[in-house]
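Renewal narrative, Specific Aim 1. Our central claim is that a sequence can be written position by position from structural information alone. The example that follows is taken directly from our test logs and has not been curated for this report. It begins with the structure tokens describing the chain, in the order in which they were read.
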């Protein structure tokens, strides 16, 4: 991994839109007060949470606000600009969905046809195309975990490709926990299967299909699929990805050999590269009916239904933005006080992305980040709110990383003082028990026992009524060989919750170890 020296918790390179572009934005009919409010909002967010990428906001296809922040390539010193090409992560599913719906319009695919009617060897005959598009097929990435790795030796030294997908699934013989249509459950595998369906029914590989039928007609000149087998070489405008190597890191690092998504040979669920302007062209092409008929788009945006008739509720609560249902590829907010808003997010190590579209007032918000950031999704909705004359959402940043970095660099006393200083500003910072707990275990797994114990102790101090906090502290003390303090921590955990079975077992274990040590 290569260190990105210019990106840190304290300082981020910020490049605003050129003055002429901003002047044009302010002249837009949205109103200069709201454009300035957007500028103030994103400037503050970039300083506090390290936004690094492109922001493009438009109304009816015409940009009203742009901002480019930070570096596309930290080692080369290349700044993000209008030509920067970003990994879109799961936003790529929108292009697969568009391709499927185009073939539905051409009557080459039936929405309610079983997937197995196109691939007879597919072992789940009740799964339909509609269910795959709406994440209600019951297919689970978790249930299918490792199926590619199990099949790959049959092909070695050749790589696993889309051609082997059905055979590998059939060989795995996995039982799904959910029945088709039973519940919403996000599935990357489902969109890989949809990509395979596009290829079979169109006679074109998905990269070529998208070039000819989506990217080309929409005018998306800087969009393409990138995998280990397709477009492998980085273009001059490609944005490298940067991520925190540890929960306590002050600086992000460039993801190199661990960039698993560029080692992938499958696609359909992700792997699309595009500029912010190309995503706006996609939005415009949809609004103008260039890619799909209006009635098809209405269907795509409408909440789909489960087998019991209820909508495909996105129970995961993506980004904490609010309740949503799944259409055919698109998510749609249940709260329509701002209008009918459809959207999709993307997230992978070192990148977060979102495309959010208000179908009623024509506002489109595009945020593409090539470095980890906590609240990118909420920022898109905040932009919608600002343009509607409403305050942005509260987007507090976790203090766990700041606490952890200070703890490792300066010690427990300085770390606690820093937390106490910042956490009083609850609209900008938060420190949850879960964040501290995860930090403590990460430090412990890295062999930083003194720091881990300090983090767990801080957790018990800030959350003194939490049985889990004392359980974690006890585990850390036990691992450090401090059995007497561990015993007290587990006892306190059980005083707070007598049903904490982890603490019950741990208490018995530590008592036995102490008894054995006294007898020696």
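The sequence written for that structure reads:
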């Amino acid at each position: 991994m290569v260190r990105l020296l210019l990106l840190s918790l304290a300082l981020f390179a910020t490049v605003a839109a050129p003055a002429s572009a901003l002047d044009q934005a302010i002249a837009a009919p949205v109103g200069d007060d709201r454009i300035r409010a957007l500028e103030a909002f994103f400037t503050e967010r970039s300083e506090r949470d390290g936004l690094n990428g492109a922001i493009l906001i438009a109304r009816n296809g015409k940009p009203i606000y742009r901002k480019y922040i930070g570096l596309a390539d930290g080692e080369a010193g290349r700044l993000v600009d209008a030509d920067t090409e970003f990994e879109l992560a799961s936003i790529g599913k929108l292009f697969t969905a568009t391709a499927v719906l185009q073939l539905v319009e051409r009557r080459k695919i039936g929405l309610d046809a079983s997937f197995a009617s196109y691939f007879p060897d597919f072992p789940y005959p009740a799964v339909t195309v509609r269910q795959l598009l709406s994440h209600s097929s019951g297919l689970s990435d978790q249930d299918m975990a490792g199926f590619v790795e199990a099949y790959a030796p049959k092909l070695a030294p050749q790589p696993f490709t889309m051609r082997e997908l059905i055979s590998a699934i059939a060989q795995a013989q996995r039982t799904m926990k959910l029945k088709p249509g039973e519940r919403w459950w996000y599935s990357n595998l489902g969109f890989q299967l949809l990509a395979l369906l596009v290829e079979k029914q169109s006679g074109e590989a998905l990269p070529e299909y998208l070039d000819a039928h989506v990217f080309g007609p929409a005018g998306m000149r800087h969009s393409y699929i990138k995998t280990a087998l397709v477009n492998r070489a980085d273009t001059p405008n490609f944005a490298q990805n940067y991520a925190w190597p540890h929960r306590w890191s002050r600086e992000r690092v460039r993801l190199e050999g661990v960039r698993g998504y560029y080692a992938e040979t499958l696609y359909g669920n992700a792997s699309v590269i595009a500029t912010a302007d190309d995503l706006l062209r996609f939005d415009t092409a949809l609004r103008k009916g260039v890619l799909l008929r209006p009635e098809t788009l209405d269907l795509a945006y409408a909440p789909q239904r489960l087998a019991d008739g209820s909508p495909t509720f996105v129970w995961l609560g993506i980004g904490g933005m609010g309740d949503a249902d799944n259409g055919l590829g698109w998510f749609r907010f249940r709260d329509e006080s701002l209008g009918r808003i459809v959207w999709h997010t993307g997230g992978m190590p070192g990148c977060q992305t979102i495309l959010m579209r208000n179908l009623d007032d024509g506002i489109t918000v595009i945020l593409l980040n090539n470095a980890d950031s906590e609240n990118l999704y909420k920022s898109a909705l905040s932009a919608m709110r600002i343009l509607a004359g409403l305050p942005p959402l509260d987007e507090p940043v976790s203090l766990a990383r700041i606490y952890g970095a200070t703890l490792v660099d300066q010690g427990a006393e300085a770390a606690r003082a820093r937390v106490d200083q910042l956490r009083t500003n609850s609209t900008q910072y938060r420190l949850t028990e879960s964040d501290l707990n995860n930090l403590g275990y990460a430090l412990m797994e890295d062999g930083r026992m003194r720091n881990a114990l300090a983090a767990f102790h801080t957790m018990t101090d800030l959350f003194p009524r939490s049985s889990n906090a004392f359980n974690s502290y006890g585990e850390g003390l036990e691992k450090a060989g401090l059995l007497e303090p561990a015993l007290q921590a587990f006892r306190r955990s059980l005083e707070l919750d007598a049903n904490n079975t982890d603490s019950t077992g741990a208490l018995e274990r530590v008592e036995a170890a102490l008894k054995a040590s006294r007898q020696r």
